[in-house]
Write a structure and sequence with these properties.
Elements (H helix, E strand, L loop, with lengths): L3 H5 L3 H6 L9 H13 L6 H28 L11 E3 L2 H11 L1 H14 L3 H30 L9 H20 L6 E3 L3 H16 L8 H7 L1
Parallel strand pairs: 1-2
């Protein structure tokens, strides 16, 4: 938010810069600069007034366009177009990553990247998915230790917090490495179901205490 009192401290010459074409000031600042100059007795011709208002309008439109583009960046562009590439849906990967951990989510996301020929992204995603399993164990243990020492308190379970963090990081990988506004069709759920079943078995067996079934048990209650 632009502070009018700050602009009032500027000289007329400095305020005039706000009205010039190509400046980087926000439209609100340009409007306030115009008002302050008028208060100081600066007379604007009809042409000058029109030019400034058009400048303000263009800046507002540019800001709106930028907000729209940023919003679309985070949107999921799933489509029914038969010519679109088939990918495992973003929402599916996010939910699976929260419930079953980053390993199955990373496998599905890396397969998406392979289809898109983003091989480096696929490798990074896969490495992260498996590495986060050990990071998760360390973080959860650390949080419980700190809670017991009253260093800080987390009301919600650390398991949910850490699982959500991993899922959000994978979500960030999707946004970062997937082409912007890419329309895609949802791929078959058969493979994700198989991966989820295998992961659920591993969590149930909990070999050498590597997997935590807290979240699955919580949702099953």
């Amino acid at each position: 938010m632009v502070n009018k009192s700050v602009l009032r401290k500027l000289s007329d010459t400095e305020l005039e810069k706000y009205l010039k074409e190509g400046n980087r000031f926000v439209p609100e600042a340009v409007q306030i600069a115009l008002e302050v100059l008028k208060e100081r007795g600066r007379i604007f011709t009809a042409e000058e007034e029109t030019a400034v208002q058009q400048l303000i309008q263009r800046k507002k439109e540019a800001e709106e366009l930028k907000r729209t583009e940023e919003k679309e960046l985070w949107q999921d562009h799933i489509t029914e177009d038969p010519t679109a590439i088939k990918l495992f849906p973003r929402k599916l990967i996010f939910i699976i990553s929260i419930l079953l951990g980053t390993i199955p989510g990373a496998i599905l996301l890396s397969l998406n990247f392979i289809k898109l020929k983003k091989y480096l992204a696929a490798g990074i995603t896969l490495i992260f998915g498996f590495a986060f399993l050990f990071i998760q164990l360390i973080l959860i243990s650390l949080i419980y230790i700190l809670n017991s020492k009253d260093s800080f308190t987390i009301r919600k379970s650390p398991e949910f917090l850490v699982a959500g963090t991993g899922a959000l990081i994978l979500f960030g990988f999707w946004v970062l490495f997937t082409p912007k506004k890419l329309p895609y069709r949802a791929a078959s759920y058969i493979f994700p179901i198989i991966i989820c079943a295998i992961m659920a078995i591993l969590i149930t067996i909990n070999y050498q205490g590597l997997f935590d079934g807290y979240i699955l048990v919580s949702f099953a209650k």
